[in-house]
């Protein structure tokens, strides 16, 4: 079994190294025809002189090509800004489509071969590394998660975190440097939607692939728990179908790209003018999508959260939660359980929710009135700030890149506005709770160790108190790793929750209420 795992690890690393190496491959030659094809006519006239030195020159990688293109592009915009010609400033991102059109060489000529030499080998290696675990007896074991370099903030974990951060920064802000990776998945994109692969298709593919492959690991690791098997199968299904395949098929049918499981305010641009106009211009289906999204946010969320708490979405449907539960499972024990972290969590996640609500209100005001400013506040600036700091940096770069540093639910715990919204319902008016049997608790600490949301579950179990927290996503791992069956996920009358008397929480310093 160990030999097979070593072989699998070697094959995975071979595919991974080949994948990274493809970034340095190929040739990039800019022509005047490419500029006319990819640039708007008014921008072609402005950019053509600045890009003249690049025309006809062949670059050996996307890095040199992207650097020179961005330098020329930035120089033009800097001149406009210096001369206060704000109407002439170019906001379109041309670097990626131009780099893609200028690409040639081995990757474009043998795309399928390189796909299997990279993604194919990585998938095969990962499965060969994971599948031998089936020979172990079911159940959670002491697998030294705090002694491994990959899962205890060691050099391997830190290296992985750095890679994920660099990947997200490149994906969001410098996709022209990753153009070779999009070429690898181009045949799949054309098969699903008929369009060439963009950086967002690449992202969706890798995202889905990670959930599926690491989902297999979850199914094996927690196969002693039917609840975990169903939950893992659910997130794999929703990500693959609703988040990846169906939106691409809609595009192939000339319909709006739409993820039917994404809900405002997590889907923060749902009420943006361009999105509303796109839906309303697509007839009956577009109107249905609009009504569906509104109904999910304002009807389905409170009703389903009342009956099932956060788990119906955060642990069974959400793509962010799906990635955290599968790819991020090896790092769940790194979540901070301190009181200080809990205080930061409550203030931060609810601040993001307020930010999202205020931004949406401003966006809708602009949409219906045509006025961008309300006093000194510009709605376009507000949405831009939210998209950069929350939509890109927080949810992407920090939310996933920090798995090996802060645990697998950094975004869900500290930043997701939808998690904050559902959490308020769960905390104050929901039938969901985790019940405890304090008399059976042996204080092993498994429940607290494996809690990805930073909840000290053992504290509740020792006191026989129900776990009723706005942050709890109902993943049920605490129950699955408990050796005595102390913890159970239940749905019952909200008024029947068992709580501890204030004296237990505050001791002799309990404030007196007059």
UniProtKB/TrEMBL annotation:
The keyword Zinc belongs to this UniProt entry's keyword annotation: no
Membrane spanning residue stretches: 7-30, 113-134, 155-174, 200-220, 232-253, 285-307, 347-368, 388-405
Coiled-coil regions listed in the entry: none
Occurrences of domain 4Fe-4S ferredoxin-type (ranges): 432-460, 463-492
GO CC terms: plasma membrane
Keywords: 4Fe-4S, Electron transport, Iron, Iron-sulfur, Membrane, Metal-binding, Transmembrane, Transmembrane helix, Transport
One Gene Ontology MF term: metal ion binding
InterPro entries: 4Fe4S_Fe-S-bd, 4Fe4S_Fe_S_CS, Electron_Trans/Redox
PANTHER family associated with the record: FERREDOXIN-TYPE PROTEIN NAPH
Protein name according to UniProt: Polyferredoxin
Organism: Rhabdobacter roseus
